[in-house]
């Protein structure tokens, strides 16, 4: 599976299945679930840590990626590249997801994790989501998706597989949108070079209002953005910049960026993630939560 994750690590799965339509995906899911064999459904593997032991079961990738635009309404299949959605909507003069330029991965994964950047989350544009619950295709409204910061109801029901989403965007000037997106892309590529084997930010930022009063008092007002404290601030205060474990490094310019510098293993990555969490726990008494998802590990893996 190392070939199918952005980290470039992870052992083999027993079987990898690609499905390029709703019908083939549902047929595959039903057939696999009927055998009782362990199953994982993934997108582009940009936010995954897969065990070095691999996954004893079947990994399914949904590849259907049609994007249909009618006025300000967009229907997009879950297997579409998020960048393709960004580019097409900018070309049509539609704003709403343009700030997500440069974020790797599929639209389904973006909805699943409520991805976002530069003041926008995809949930702000989602009208409805179609998904397969294991028995039939259903549809949920934006409110029913229970979107929160980097969260959705689909994280609570991992057996529900997102098929497509309908987005409602706003009309805007295509040239201005592209100029804004290009500026964002330049900043993102400098921070997370496209060739870097990483998942972007490892840990979720923290909502300031949800922190204990004692911790809130320790956070400088200057670092708070849109009601959130960057996880990088806590990590930086805990002194994790530049830490290394074999081939896995914490960037020396960004404390919330962990990458595979070459030859890194899943074990090294997980050990370094754990070391960063422990340092923050010891310094601030709070537990950072990963944005990345784990496959091939014990169910409670990743908890302190």
């Amino acid at each position: 599976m190392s070939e199918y994750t952005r980290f470039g690590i992870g052992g083999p799965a027993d079987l990898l299945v690609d499905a390029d339509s709703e019908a083939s995906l549902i047929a595959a899911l039903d057939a696999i679930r009927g055998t009782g064999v362990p199953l994982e459904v993934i997108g582009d593997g940009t936010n995954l840590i897969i065990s070095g032991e691999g996954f004893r079961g079947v990994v399914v990738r949904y590849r259907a990626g049609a994007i249909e635009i009618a006025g300000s309404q967009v229907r997009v299949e879950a297997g579409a590249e998020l960048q393709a959605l960004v580019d097409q909507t900018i070309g049509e003069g539609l704003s709403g997801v343009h700030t997500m330029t440069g974020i790797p991965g599929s639209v389904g994964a973006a909805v699943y994790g409520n991805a976002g950047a530069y003041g926008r989350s995809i949930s702000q544009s989602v009208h409805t989501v179609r998904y397969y619950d294991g028995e039939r295709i259903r549809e949920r409204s934006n409110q029913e998706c229970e979107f929160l910061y980097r969260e959705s109801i689909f994280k609570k029901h991992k057996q529900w597989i997102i098929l497509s989403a309908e987005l409602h965007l706003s009309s805007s000037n295509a040239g201005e949108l592209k100029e804004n997106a290009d500026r964002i892309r330049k900043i993102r590529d400098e921070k997370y070079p496209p060739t870097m084997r990483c998942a972007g930010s490892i840990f979720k930022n923290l909502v300031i209002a949800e922190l204990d009063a004692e911790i809130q008092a320790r956070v400088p007002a200057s670092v708070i953005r849109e009601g959130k404290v960057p996880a990088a601030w806590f990590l930086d205060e805990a002194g994790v910049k530049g830490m290394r474990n074999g081939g896995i490094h914490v960037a020396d310019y960004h404390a919330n960026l962990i990458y595979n510098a070459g030859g890194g293993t899943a074990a090294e990555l997980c050990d370094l993630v754990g070391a960063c969490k422990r340092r923050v726990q010891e310094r601030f008494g709070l537990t950072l939560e990963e944005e990345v998802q784990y496959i091939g590990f014990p169910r409670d893996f990743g908890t302190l």
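The domain at 2-62 is CATH 3.30.43.10 (Uridine Diphospho-n-acetylenolpyruvylglucosamine Reductase; domain 2). The chain has a mean pLDDT of 95.
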